[in-house]
Specification:
heterodimer, A: 164 residues, mainly alpha, DNA polymerase, domain 1, 48% helix, B: 663 residues, alpha/beta, Flavocytochrome C3, Chain A, domain 1, SDH_sf (chain A), SDHAF2 (chain A), chaperone (chain A)
Amino acid sequence: MLSAAIAKRLVTGLCQGAWRPAVTGGLVSSRSYRGEAPEDTRGDLIEIPLPPWEEKPGEPTDIKRRRLLYESRKRGMLENCILLSLFAKRYLNTMSESQLLQYDRLINEPSNDWDIYYWATEAQPTPEVYQGEVMDMLKEFTKNRDQEQRLDAPNLEYLDKESQ
Amino acid sequence: MASVRAASRLLSKRVLSKTTPVPAAAVQGSRNFHFSIYGKKKSASVSDNISTQYPVVDHEFDAVVVGAGGAGLRAAFGLSEAGFNTACITKLFPTRSHTVAAQGGINAALGNMEGDDWRWHFYDTVKGSDWLGDQDAIHYMTEQAPAAVVELENFGMPFSRTEDGKIYQRAFGGQSLKYGKGGQAHRCCCVADRTGHSLLHTLYGRSLRYDTSYFVEYFALDLLMEDGECKGVIALCMEDGSIHRFRAKNTVIATGGYGRTYFSCTSAHTSTGDGNAMVTRAGLPCQDLEFVQFHPTGIYGAGCLITEGCRGEGGILINSEGERFMERYAPNAKDLASRDVVSRSMTIEIREGRGVGPEKDHVYLQLHHLPPQQLAARLPGISETAMIFAGVDVTKEPIPVLPTVHYNMGGVPTNYKGQVITHTKGEDKVVPGLYACGEAACASVHGANRLGANSLLDLVVFGRACALTIAEENKPGETLSPLKPSAGEESVANLDKLRFANGSMRTSEIRLNMQKTMQAHAAVFRTGSVLKEGCDKMDAIYQTMEELKTFDRGIVWNTDLVETLELQNLMLNAVQTIHSAEQRKESRGAHAREDFKDRVDEYDYSKPLQGQEAKPYDEHWRKHTMSYVDPKTGKVTLEYRPVIDHSLDEQDCAHVPPAIRSY
């Protein structure tokens, strides 16, 4: 009985939830340790929707950049702190308006910070709503083709105009 | 004045009507949800009592929770459900709190995989704490655990199930059956692999239905204390640089740990001990800060965590000789021994010259002997982390790992009800109006060492306990006692000083000095001379805070300023940690000293007690450290408080007398 209700919700979720990542068939959670635990039913995500992300209208671009810098540096786990603050250092100040909007949505809408990490590392497919220029930039950046050492998040000194 | 206009513009923007319907696109099914994230029942008012340069907004609530991680959300939810007008202040969006990183699960003696009894869980936790845990709090937590998990299930957390539909439970380090004599227990409940996220998502979502007011991306600066009573919190709104004073009869601190005092830690950059620092600046003590848990397997360099689940699946730790050295240190549990035992063993191997790598300063975690299908099915995410941060292919090579700072057992001292306490004249005394829960608090259920999967349990049980205690002793809508109009002006002055700081040392420089000093002098293995040197260095680094230089003079989304405030908080935590460690002349749990290798209890528990004389309180170390700092000088004062050895009900669950701890 419970599973029928969940299946129904899954279907309505698929049709309506434009802001929710697409559910692929046989969803495998590529997390660190699954053990013998069965599939994730995602019951909480389906039954308890959170307020949808909204773009901040009328926010000046320079303020948006400052906000996104803070939001890139302060994440839920270390992996994203390192990855996104390095990404922000490289790209944030030169992103166009539309790129900033894409980035804003990417780092602020998903409720599970790990999802952003899986999409960036391509361990899981990126949902359509987040695909785009910025996601491609992030995926490429994550590959680390130059094999630079990524042992920690950078400090903020690169923003200090006086020292340049 | 421009600032007042700005504040009133800000006010009108924020107050959403409770009946505003949500746009159709976001409606799930046919239900309407009312989201009033910034809704307030009483109107906030603007004042200029403490600053004419920063717009100050005063709010009144029944309860204020600082922090929106697992513990904070559970407290906020519990309070809102009980009808209290609750504010939750957080510097991060709630589902981005560090709880989201939690991989393990929640321990509870549900008995779904084999017969179980919460008293066995109680025994495991007391033993795990190396008899520094307060047994009344541990009794409370382990007894409440099954009910807490079932409650979460009812809120909507989709725990993983066995084929029979019962909650699936897995093994975790340090959990046994029949008081340690019945083999490995399976009592860790999980939501696939995202227990932490599911906890946050469920609690945040549910709390919104009760109209909790969230103040997201507000940085809490200080507690508002008057006459030894906590009357609220003052915070900075990052979005517009306004100052907000939240007056409330009850304040709950749930700000998490302070891993970022160390150079190598598994914590996000948000773990900066803000609550501990606020409590210290209020002249109250912090407890047991020297007990820092080192997770055995953090990636060498980056610090990213490799979950204990790897070892649960058969991964083994090897030294330079290719030996599975854990067989020597923990013959029964081997690689699944308690974390401090594993960390200590790894460190001994390195110190004795059997480390790997060019500098022989770490060991290897080997997974490539496991069948590739098992690796892919049960440990898929490990390959990514190992490749991205360590450049290693786990099917071919072992992962370089090192014990990395992972958890802070110490924090704000509380009793088992979640009330913050001080210890004066030999007695515990409650601080009126102040509560703490989660990693920020020290109840103390983890004592000298935390068992895996007990932390999420700690969050949920004590978050709930704070809400229950407040509901028991207060009624919603009570009038607030008066507060001095100038309350909080020092916090604003400090903020202003940091914003315009123009000394000679940058925030990042001082922070790195602190982190490297702590890593070199107060890590897994500690010894007197190294600790003393570290204390002197830390004291000197504390003084360099006077030379701070910030570069961002703005007030809106000023990350430089926030990171500097966080540095101030980290400093207070760091000096207390290292001074407490230097003073504690024994080895207990996660605090291991090369020069004092044994536990110093009131009796020598390795021998029969008959005929032994108990050491006086001043001469043994089975006691909690209570540390104070004078923020102006950085001077640390240490006092001690006895461990609570009786359970809540000796008939129902006898306390566990101390014994030698071996696995």
